[in-house]
## 1
Amino acid sequence: MAKKKIELFEDVKKHHVRMALETNKIATTARSAGIHPDTLRKWIKEYEIEILDQIEAEGKSIMPTVTTEKEYRKKYELAMKLLGEKELEVAVLKDALKKNDHL
């Protein structure tokens, strides 16, 4: 009986490890499981190789965690565009305030 409980608990741990590895979101997975992220990290260390082997055997792949230079450039360009829009907005508002003060 106790052995069956241990196996069930191990299955639950492996399920959460797999979710964390597939989504690359440890904190979110831990929160949804109701456990501390450090606990999940410990489980990942324990079961990572086994779970990755299962995923590979199923022909699936894990989302890459490394951001490419191209992705960084896109994010940078978007940030610069948004910054430029905000600077323009501030300039327009300052101009409107000056015109209001002269009236």
Note: The helical segments are 2-23, 26-33, 37-57, 69-102.
## 2
Amino acid sequence: MYGHKTGLSPWAFTLQVICQQRCPPAPAAIIMSLEAVFAAITGYLVLGQTLSLRALFGCALIFGGVLIVQLVPLLKREARAATTHTASD
């Protein structure tokens, strides 16, 4: 709605496509899944919009899900490396 009035929508879309082409698939998917969170934060900061408690909870669930998807494999990798390092000592 506001992007159309300011003329920023075509630029934002073009930038998104360019960045997606240069980003590996997994990080691109994660960034795209956070689009609603980024939109909510930007709406609050730039436009002064407010979110209901339900919308804030939804953003928190999305963000938490993305953190879990990213952190669990990292923690497993570190645990595996630690056990390998301990076994070789």
Note: The chain has a mean pLDDT of 79.
## 3
Amino acid sequence: MPIIKGIRVTEEEIIAYLVDGRTISVPLAWSWRLSEATPEQRSNFEIIGDGYSLHWSDIDEDISAEGMLYGIPARRSKHGHPYSSVIGAIV
């Protein structure tokens, strides 16, 4: 399982740096919440779950390293469920 040690969010990508030296990147558009967030909101994140996931409290977004690795984009909820935008499963 990939473990995140750091990230960078640009205008185009979400880039995760893993403890084993690998880098994973996905298009920013895969997270509609991050796409619509301000640069300040994008930079306000925390690494959670011992490095397995990322959380942006300002926009209530969670992204797992595994979801990034396997390319599982966030979906907009039809019903507005607060956890529908999670990329990948957070166990």
Note: The beta strands are 4-9, 13-18, 23-27, 46-48, 53-56, 61-64.
